[in-house]
Amino acid sequence: MYNIVTDYTWTATTGSYKDECPRIFAKTFEPRNSDIYNNLANWTSSIKPNRQYKTYYNDLHTTDPKDRWVFPYFDDTARSFTNEWGDQRVDSTSSKVTGLLAQYLETNVTSPVANLFASTQEAGAILQGNNNSMLLEPPKFYQYGNSDTDVVIEFPLINTIDPFPDIPKNWNLICKLIKENRFERLGGAATKSPYLWSIVIPGYRAIRWASCNVDVTFVGNRKYLGNKIVPEGYRVKLTFKSLYTEPRNFMADVGGEFLG
Q1: Average pLDDT rounded to a whole number, residues 113-120
Q2: Distance (Å, rounded) from C-alpha 60 to C-alpha 90?
């Protein structure tokens, strides 16, 4: 467990402030197989009947669970997303199979039927002497776009209040975040993807699979100590991007610490 709220020096305030600090819960997962394998496995398992929503999303990636995290959360955003409807189906992923199927149905079923209906109605109107123009409004398709905003976490790590053990402790944390959120080259062209994350904003949002962008900057004066640059502090910014369009089912998980 990496509990930034209680176990790291990110504020000089004492007392019950840390206990009342708003927080986000997270968990990391190390990818076990290649992305190609995950896609094949997902298509195979997708035809299984009566799968629960958690099982469906859990099966999207084969991973090994790693660490639990607790981050302070001071961003103003609780939840923000948009909904769109259009004349054609748009999926949130680049699935060629579902895309081709939707295109086939649109071309060979939906549009011909709508055109036939419109032509019939128009012909009937002309025969009845009705000179008014006609407008056929076909049903709209929900656009499965991934419109949820990113989850942004920002917090300082201070090296000057209690330099030892805070200096090595903070540096080790920074290195861990950098290493686990970069891909690994295994040899030749083979690589392993960065860690995946599950995120919960208590009461408002749960993300089953997210990627993490890392932004670390130096704060204050800095020295060269122990073969590394040691600043007075760091400012850490983590941006979590949901990999998939989030269904309303996930609202059942916002009261817990971890999804999955």
Answers
A1: 55
A2: 20
- Regarding whether 239 and 110 lie in a shared domain, the answer is no
Who's near 72: CB < 8 A, 6+ residues apart?
A: 4, 5, 10, 21, 22, 23, 153, 155
Q: Are residues 241 and 180 in the same domain?
A: yes
Least reliable range by pLDDT among 5-9, 20-24, 133-137, 157-161? 133-137
User: What's the rounded Cα separation, in Å, for the pair 247 and 243?
Assistant: 12
Identify residue 31 by its one-letter amino acid code: P
Statement to judge: residues 234 and 249 lie in one domain: yes
Cα(170)–Cα(235) distance, rounded to whole angstroms?
Answer: 11
Domain that holds residue 137: 96-141
187 DSSP β-pair partners: 190
8 A C-beta contact, residue 17 and residue 11: yes
> Cα–Cα distances in Å, from 133 out to 112, 116, 123, 137, 242?
20, 16, 11, 13, 46
**Count of CB atoms within 10 A of residue 254's CB?**
15
Q: Render pLDDT for 235-245 as a digit per residue (tens, 0 to 9).
A: 999 999 999 99
- Can you tell me the distance from the alpha carbon of 204 to that of 20, in angstroms, rounded to the nearest whole number? 18
How many domains, in total, are found in the chain?
2
User: Regarding beta strands 2-3 and 63-72, do their DSSP bridges make them parallel or antiparallel, or are they unpaired?
Assistant: parallel
